[in-house]
Amino acid sequence: MHARWKIDGFLPARDIDNQQTPINLFGFKDGTGNAPATDTHLMDDLVWITDKQNEPQWCLGGSYQAVRLIRFALEFWDRTPLEDQENNFGRHRATGAPIGNEARNGLT
């Protein structure tokens, strides 16, 4: 097997046990909704292809990846009022909490 396509991202590779949520180029926490990679049972259900799914035999033990390229219009974004930025993301930039909540996990 060999890579047919590759593109570098802007975030460095991290240890899966690191629970710090990285900040994206817009200044917001990125990956807040990701499942914890340390939960092996959840990863087995959500990520890894098993014989319980209707997939080809050669896929077993693998996973799929969807790639979305995002072009950041940073100059325009930087001139956008903070309230508009937060409404676009649905989160407070400073804390990562959902709009209307104080805590990042949504609990007040």
Automatic annotation (TrEMBL):
An example of a Gene Ontology cellular component annotation for this protein is: cytosol
* Chain residue ranges for the region called Disordered: 86-108
Tell me where on the tree of life, at the top rank, the source sits. Answer: Bacteria
Entry's EC annotation: 1.11.1.-
Q: Which UniProt keywords apply?
A: Heme, Iron, Metal-binding, Oxidoreductase, Peroxidase, Signal
Q: Which PROSITE patterns match?
A: DYP_PEROXIDASE
InterPro entries linked: Dimeric_a/b-barrel, Dyp_perox_C, Dyp_peroxidase
Domain Dyp-type peroxidase C-terminal as annotated: residue spans: 21-102
Report a single Gene Ontology molecular function. Answer: peroxidase activity
Needed cofactors, names only, are:
heme b
Q: What is this protein called?
A: Dyp-type peroxidase
